[in-house]
């Protein structure tokens, strides 16, 4: 089925894009990699009057390393994250997560900003930016504002973005020394959306104990779930399997999985527990091998 006809705008700057969104309001849709939007258009689940194509905005494709963070432009493709070259090498978790997305065609076109704005509950990158304590930078008619990743996702396919705002970048803190990270997921076939994914970071102290841990899940509720109680339970413990298992035991209280055609809520909770323990173990192993 062809999409319902729409006008097409190709701004050269963020300001022009924001101006177009302001003009058309919620009758406009932003186009980035098109990997989620184009299917919605052709299924007529989205019927915008105008599509605002961000692909000509050079600023959005940059990755900038400054002080203790990298600022990843919203148009940076999953494939670039996966390759992890240049400044992106400072955050290997992004590469590990991007490699799990779809297939090479999807990763070549899909963008980090599109994935975050689309906010699919099963997508890897929203959970990863929550685990990384990243900040989403958005720009609208009133200028720029920053939203903590944990506040950005407000429901399934729903974010804190206003209709006249676009995601311009993601500010990712560079992990401290002696930090390891990992993402693990279960999906029906390689490249499918995760049934559940667990992203974990572990930072070790001078004595080898866990100085801090962070975990976020995809597929365990309508938004990415940060497991704050698990994280708190791990601080100061030795990075051993028993500690990870103890901490993950009560994680059911921090998630709100739903049953659907792919998995029951109970199975998602089970997966969440198993994948959290394994991702923490792997992250701790990487931390031991990390530069001091
Ligand atoms: C076969 C297939 C398999 C896939 N598998 C996975 C998977 O395993 N894991 C996964 O996470 N994803 C998967 N995807 C989705 C893929 O990651 C998409 O790239 C992503 O969801 C959307 O990114 P995009 O750049 O293509 O955005 P688009 O499709 O262009 O846009 C998606 C939505 O975000 C909005 N938007 C885009 N950019 C911005 C911006 N900068 N500011 C504000 N709003 C914006 C659009 O208006 C639209 O509503 C798959 C897609 C396909 C087709």
Secondary-structure map with pairings?
Blueprint: E1 7-9, H1 14-24, E2 28-31, H2 37-42, E3 50-53, E4 63-66, E5 69-73, H3 78-83, H4 92-98, H5 104-109, H6 112-118, H7 124-131, E6 135-140, E7 143-148, H8 149-152, E8 153-155, E9 158-159, E10 166-173, E11 179-186, E12 196-204, E13 210-218, E14 225-226, H9 228-234, H10 241-248, H11 265-289
Parallel strand pairs: 1-3, 2-3
Antiparallel strand pairs: 4-5, 5-10, 6-7, 6-10, 8-9, 11-12, 12-13, 13-14
The structure holds flavin-adenine dinucleotide.
- Summing up helix and strand content along with how strands pair, one would put the structural category as alpha+beta
Distance between termini? Answer: 56 Å
Helical residue percent band: 25-40%
Radius of gyration over alpha carbons?
Answer: 19 Å
Main traits of this protein?
alpha+beta, five-stranded antiparallel β-sheet, four-stranded antiparallel β-sheet, 11 helices, 14 strands, globular, binds flavin-adenine dinucleotide
Task: Explain the overall architecture.
The protein has 292 residues and is of the alpha+beta class. Helices cover 33% and strands 25% of the residues. The protein has eleven helices and 14 strands. The strands form four sheets. The protein has a five-stranded antiparallel β-sheet with strand order 4-5-10-6-7. The chain has a four-stranded antiparallel β-sheet with strand order 11-12-13-14. A three-stranded parallel β-sheet has the order 1-3-2, covered by helices on one side. Strand 4 and strand 5 form a beta hairpin. The mean pLDDT is 96. The chain binds flavin-adenine dinucleotide. The site of flavin-adenine dinucleotide has 31 residues, from strand 2, helix 6, helix 7 and strand 10.
């Amino acid at each position: 089925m062809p999409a319902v006809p729409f006008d097409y705008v190709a701004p050269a700057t963020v300001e022009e894009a924001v101006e177009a969104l302001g003009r058309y309001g919620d009758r406009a849709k932003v186009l980035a990699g098109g990997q989620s939007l184009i299917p919605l258009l052709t299924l007529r689940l989205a019927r915008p009057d105008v599509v605002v194509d961000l692909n000509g905005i050079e600023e959005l494709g940059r990755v900038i390393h400054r002080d203790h963070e990298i600022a990843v432009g919203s148009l940076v493709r999953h494939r670039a994250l996966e390759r992890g070259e240049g400044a992106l090498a400072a955050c290997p978790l992004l590469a590990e997560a991007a490699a799990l997305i779809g297939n090479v065609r999807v990763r070549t076109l899909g963008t980090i900003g599109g994935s975050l704005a689309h906010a699919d509950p099963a997508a890897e990158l929203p959970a990863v930016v929550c685990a990384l304590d990243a900040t989403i930078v958005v720009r609208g008619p009133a200028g720029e504002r920053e939203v903590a990743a944990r506040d950005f996702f407000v429901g399934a396919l729903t974010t804190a973005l206003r209709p006249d705002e676009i995601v311009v970048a993601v500010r990712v803190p560079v992990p401290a020394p002696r930090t390891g990270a990992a993402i693990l997921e279960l999906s029906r076939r390689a490249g499918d959306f995760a049934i559940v994914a667990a992203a974990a970071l572990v930072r070790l102290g001078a004595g080898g104990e866990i100085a801090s841990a962070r975990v976020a899940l995809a597929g365990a509720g309508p938004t990415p779930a940060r497991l704050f109680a698990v994280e708190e339970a791990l601080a100061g413990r030795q990075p051993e399997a028993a500690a990870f298992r103890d901490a993950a035991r009560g994680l059911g209280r921090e998630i709100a999985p739903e049953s659907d055609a792919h998995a029951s809520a109970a199975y998602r909770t089970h997966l969440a527990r198993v994948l959290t323990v394994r991702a923490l173990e792997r992250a701790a192993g990487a931390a031991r091998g990390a530069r001091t």
